[in-house]
From TrEMBL:
Keyword presence, Membrane: yes
Keyword tags: Membrane, Transmembrane, Transmembrane helix
Name recorded for this polypeptide: Uncharacterized protein
Membrane-crossing segments per the record: 6-22
Organism annotation: Halovibrio variabilis
Length: 87
């Protein structure tokens, strides 16, 4: 009875591992395809705060402005607020 349980556990474990491998492969494949697409039609945008160029899909957008990170977006917005004089 215990041997049966062990065999069942091993089969279950192997199946789970195979399924994980299969999923990983699929994900990697899709990632590669996405990368190729980005290289073909990838658009670069400039961070409004530090002038660094970043791919559009990695950049953050706030209205018409682009930012390389949320930190820079927040800083830019903060400065805008300071200029306006609104608290
Ligand atoms: Zn930036």
């Amino acid at each position: 009875m215990i041997i049966r349980l062990i065999i069942f556990a091993v089969v279950f474990y192997v199946g789970l591992k195979l399924y994980g491998l299969y999923r990983q492969r699929k994900l990697e494949h899709e990632e590669q395809r996405n990368k190729v697409n980005h290289h073909e039609g990838g658009k670069m945008v400039r961070c409004r705060w530090c002038d660094v160029h970043v791919p559009e899909e990695e950049a953050l957008r706030d209205q018409a402005q682009w930012f390389c990170s949320s930190a820079h977006r927040d800083r830019f917005l903060q400065e805008q607020q300071d200029k306006d004089g609104t608290p």
